Amino acid sequence: MxxxxxxxxxxxxxxxxxxLLFFILTIGILxxxxxxxxxxxxxxxxxxxxTVPTGSIVFIKKxxxxxxxxxxxxxxxxxxxxxxxxxxxxxxxxxxxxxPPILHRAIQKVEIGGxxxxxxxxxxxxxxxxxxxxxxxxxxxDMIIGKLVWYLPYLGYPFLWLRxxxxxxxxxxxxxxxxxxxxxxxxxx
Length: 189
Prior knowledge:
The protein is an alpha+beta fold. The chain has one domain. It has helices at 14-34, 157-161, 165-180, and strands spanning 40-42, 57-61, 78-81, 87-91, 94-98, 102-112, 115-121, 139-140, 144-152. It has a 7-stranded antiparallel β-sheet. It is elongated. The two termini are 25 Å apart.
């Protein structure tokens, strides 16, 4: 029975394989150019409004601590950083951070013992993320994933929707059904 099935996308559709290869190559190129395993992310909250709207796709470039410009809006660089106890899952072409990284502006920077510490704050937030009087509580340079290079506003909302487990399960089920349903073969009369 399985021999007679037309497996559609997996067996006969060269376009699907070309698109998949293009996607993998694009991610590889973006990782190489950006210097980070997470060249793209999506803004999930309004803490950087109106500078970077919620749902924006953000492109990131790796930077060293000394390269980060700190200052109040609009001077300071917008950086993406991970929390201290973040678990990182590098799944071939996709990297997952748990919890997700934070995108905020660098408002102050100090060097202590040859290591840079950055105080961050969301543009829409009233207070900084950490105690301004204790630089050791700030983000250390090794927690910085990169800085914002440019962004596409609002185009990331579909990716935010996919974080909902019910939507993800429904989409996976839909894709499996589409792949497994045999298609009629074209027959000439």
